[in-house]
Amino acid sequence: MGKFTVSLDVPMEHMQNLFGKCDSYIKKIEDDLHVIIVDRDGAVKISGDKQNVEQATRIVRELLTLSERGNVLEEQNIDYALEMGKESKEDVL
């Protein structure tokens, strides 16, 4: 499969919450889904194989929604979102 990229607008006030300390949350998503996630001018760009990018995009949107509701994201939120993403992927197969 070829490379695929999605760009999501993320308000600056949620960027740190989404990325985590030392980008630990984003690195976890990248490692788990084999994608590359970068912050470029207020947008989060997710690149990789289409299926993985789509899954990572859903997860980032879910986490952003939590952040916008005033939640401080924790590693547990990231683990849960990744696990739910795997389960929904298995349901499709």
Structural key phrases:
globular, 3-stranded antiparallel β-sheet, alpha+beta, 93 residues
Protein model, in words:
- It is a single chain.
- The protein is globular and about 35 Å long.
- The protein has 93 residues and is of the alpha+beta class.
- The longest helix is centred in the middle third of the chain and has 19 residues, at 50-68.
- The protein has a 3-stranded antiparallel β-sheet with strand order 1-3-2.
- 59% of the residues lie in helices and 20% in strands.
- A hairpin with a 2-residue loop joins strand 2 (36-40) and strand 3.
- The model has no long low-confidence stretch (mean pLDDT 90).
Q: How does the helix and strand content classify structurally?
A: alpha+beta
Tally of helical segments = 4
- SSE sequence, one letter per element: EHHEEHH
Helix content: 55-70%
Q: Name the overall outline.
A: globular
First-last Cα distance: 18 Å
Order of strands, widest sheet: 1-3-2
**Poorly predicted residue ranges:** none
The total of beta strands comes to 3
Overall pLDDT, averaged? 90
Instruction: Report Rg.
Output: 12 Å
Largest sheet: 3 strands, antiparallel
Strand content: 15-25%
Short characterization:
With 93 residues, the chain is an alpha+beta fold.
Question: Could you outline the blueprint of secondary structure elements for this entry?
Answer:
Blueprint: E1 3-9, H1 12-19, H2 24-33, E2 36-40, E3 43-49, H3 50-68, H4 75-92
Antiparallel strand pairs: 1-3, 2-3
